Amino acid sequence: MVEATASPRGSDLDARLRRLEDAAAIRELLAGYVRGADQRDPAAMLSLYHDGATDDHGTFRGLATDYVAHAQLSLASHYRATQHVLGASDIVLNGDRAHVRTHVIAVHRKPTDEGPDTVQVVGGSYFDEFERRNGCWGVVRRQFQPTWQTEGPESDWMPLMQGPAAVDGQGRPGDVRPGV
Predict the structure, then answer these.
(1) Is pLDDT of 112 > 60?
(2) Structure letter (DSSP) for residue 80
(3) Could you tell me if 95 and 137 are in contact, meaning their C-beta atoms sit under 8 angstroms apart?
């Protein structure tokens, strides 16, 4: 459910349009964040947050800027490739604030000392508090709550991980690869 306060003109159509624009802006920020995680782009990840935002990922609690630095180091040193897939977002708007829960599945491809890579899959939800400041939405508080996890050798997952991006982890926005 998406709720919002009435627009200054009081028009029902204006209010509905504003809710749609606000929800779209929030979804764009969420997508940019996971794209930044998968492409090892800290600026894209940071674009989700307002200055002074906090992030609680369980193993890390602190400023979002520190979390992004921590996550970038962890992703680069532990995983060959990752893919974060966003599911449904429940967005509750209230003027210049929004509470958002977004489902996510994160796939991590980890090298091993010998033998095939290991694939780790984690499912959970992001719980975000957004604010609109100077006309721009951003997260002021984020919490990630994992709900399940599985892990196994890459051979168990390979039918699901075909194509160039699965091999090199370097897919970019706008890449179109026939057959992938």
Answers:
(1) yes
(2) S
(3) no
Q: Which domains does the chain have, with CATH numbers?
A: 12-162 (3.10.450.50)
Say if residues 142 and 56 touch (Cβ distance below 8 Å): yes
3-state DSSP helix/strand/coil percent for the chain, to nearest 5? Answer: 35, 40, 25
pLDDT in tens, 117-174: 899 999 999 999 999 999 999 999 999 999 999 998 887 766 555 554 444 445 554 5
pLDDT cut 90: percent of the chain above it: 72
Q: What distance in Å separates the CA atoms of residue 61 and residue 4, rounded to the nearest whole number? A: 30
CB 26 within 8 A of CB 137: yes
Query: Residue 27 is encoded by which pair of tokens?
Result: 């979804």
Q: How confident is the model at residue 114 (pLDDT cuts 50, 70, 90)?
A: confident
Nearest to 31 by CA among 99, 115, 87, 76: 87
pLDDT at residue 5 in the model: 54
Contact 154, 128 (CB under 8 A): no
Q: What is the rounded CA–CA span in Å between residue 139 and residue 15?
A: 22
Q: Structure tokens of 37?
A: 């995680």
| Residue 136 CB burial class (10 angstroms; 0-12, 13-18, ≥19) | exposed
Give strand pairing partners of 97. 94, 131
